[in-house]
Design brief:
The chain is mainly alpha-helical. The protein has 17 helices and no strands. The longest helix is centred in the middle third of the chain and has 41 residues.
Length: about 500
């Protein structure tokens, strides 16, 4: 009781000490009221920082794959810095090598290339004349089959023999026409056009027209067979009903195929509704800018590396040749990628937009190819469609193995590559042909990696593809043909004569 009385006395004394000026929080205005203090719990050193089992994010056992965006940014920065260093080093060592008037082209080169460009499409008109005669013959044959005195057994046998004989004549006519088209251009380019770039343009144009003539002949042959045998097992795509044979054999139809960005003939193509001229302008601007970039990169960076490699190749200095290949691989890859984008993304899309051409899958993601075979199926769709439709599938359909059909495809492609590279450089040394044939064992080597379970096989296959593509393929071919050119016309030839 005494303790309680003492405690009350102390509280009263505290209140008296505060004085009349002391106020409670209720008496203070709102803006002067002290903030309520939040009591923080006292930290203890018992937090569980390892509450469960976890794996490292780069481990195969990780539940979620980490993002490598930062490493990608780092690689881009490293590549930019390294190439900027090479740019500075190149200018310090060689100065400005770009010169418009320094190109060794002649007036006769321009004249002959213009004549060839104008004459080569005339072979398409010859193909039209051949098919027009074949269509008239087919109409007459169908009319005879529909006569009232038609005898199924005898007349059908006679018409079948007539069709085979007619097709042989038409095939020979198409073959002579297409071959003459390619041979004339090849002869003129090899013997009379000195500048390799001008010759390459002429040769590419002749090969494209030659392939289009072949596709036009093969496709119309099968359309004619289906026209004469409507009950046969050959089923035509429903799209072709919009322009059935022989209504497709017209000048306008062939002219559209000539300019269409495809090597495979169809009577009808999917069409886009209108032309977006802003889209065309952007694609053409891209094509022009990339063409200028390729020219500058070739003259300023690729040419000095190639010239500095001539003495190493002449003396067969293997270590120096490998070093030059690795140095050339960077600039050749950049030039190739720029050329790929300029042609397949910019030029072909601009042409497709102007022609209302609807199917614009000119390539797919070949850069992710898990095998060499996948790369050849995805990087150049127009050529792939031609090879598959007119070489691979007919051979397999006639009972040949897929391996034999693939060999024939790469044999044919190797010959075309040698014509495309060896003829304009005036050196048929077989490097382009051998390079294409080497793709067959590379395809066999990487095909199992594409089919492996998991991502490891695909990653290994993609690495093999890039190594063969960047270090062995293009740089080596460029060195060989440049050395052959210089040995025939340039510094190596002058050294040997001296």
């Amino acid at each position: 009781m005494a303790d309680l009385t003492a405690l009350q006395s102390i509280r009263g004394l505290e209140n008296d000490t505060a004085g009349p000026s002391a106020t409670t929080t209720k008496d203070l205005p709102n803006e002067q009221a002290p903030a309520k203090s939040k009591t923080q719990p006292k930290y203890t050193h018992v937090a569980a920082v390892h509450p469960r089992q976890r794996t490292s994010c780069l481990s195969h056992d990780s539940e979620q794959s980490p993002s490598f965006l930062g490493f990608r940014n780092l690689m881009v920065i490293v590549l930019v810095v390294m190439n900027l260093r090479l740019v500075v080093e190149n200018f310090m060592k060689y100065g400005v090598l770009i010169c418009i008037r320094c190109h060794d082209y002649r007036r006769i080169d321009v004249l002959l290339s213009t004549v060839l460009y104008a004459l080569v499409p005339c072979h398409l008109f010859v193909a039209y004349i051949i098919e027009l005669g074949a269509a008239q013959h087919a109409k007459g044959a169908l009319g005879r089959l529909k006569r009232s005195d038609y005898h199924p057994n005898d007349d059908l046998f006679q018409e079948s023999r007539s069709f085979q004989a007619t097709w042989s004549t038409i095939a020979w006519a198409h073959g002579i026409n297409a071959t003459f088209c390619l041979l004339v251009t090849t002869y003129v380019v090899y013997y009379h056009i000195h500048h390799p770039m001008i010759g390459s343009i002429c040769q590419v144009h002749a090969i494209v027209v030659w392939l289009k003539i072949c596709s036009y002949a093969f496709t119309n042959r099968d359309l004619r067979h289906a026209y004469l045998n409507p009950s046969s097992a050959t089923a035509l795509p429903g799209l072709y009903s919009q322009c059935p044979y022989p209504r497709n054999v017209t000048i306008s139809n062939l002219a559209y195929f000539w300019w269409a960005p495809t090597l495979v003939y169809q009577p009808v193509y999917p069409r886009s509704p209108s032309i977006r001229w802003s889209f065309v302008a952007k694609r053409l601007a891209e094509c022009f800018a990339l063409s200028m970039f390729i020219w500058l990169a070739s003259a300023q960076y690729a040419a000095p590396v190639l010239r500095n490699s001539l003495d190493k190749i002449k003396t067969l200095d293997v270590a120096s040749i490998i070093e030059r290949l690795m140095k050339l691989s960077t600039i050749s890859l950049i030039i190739w990628l720029a050329g790929f984008f300029a042609i397949f993304q910019s030029a072909l899309n601009a042409l497709a937009e102007i022609m209302h051409f609807g199917d614009r899958e000119f390539y797919t993601d070949w850069w992710n190819s898990p095998s060499v075979g996948n790369y050849w199926r995805t990087w150049n769709k127009p050529v792939y469609h031609f090879m598959r439709r007119h070489i691979y599938s007919p051979l397999v359909g006639r009972g040949y193995s897929s391996r034999f059909a693939s060999t024939m495809v790469f044999l044919f492609s190797g010959l075309l590559h040698e014509l495309l590279v060896g003829i304009p450089t005036h050196n048929i040394i077989g490097v382009a042909f051998i390079g294409m044939m080497v793709q067959l064992p590379m395809i066999s080597l990487t095909a199992p990696l594409e089919k492996m379970q998991g991502i490891n096989g695909r990653v290994i296959g993609n690495c093999i593809f890039w190594i063969s593509f960047c270090l062995v393929g293009q740089p080596l071919a460029a060195l060989m043909y440049f050395f052959a050119w210089q040995a025939k016309y340039g510094s190596v030839s002058r050294l040997e004569k001296g």
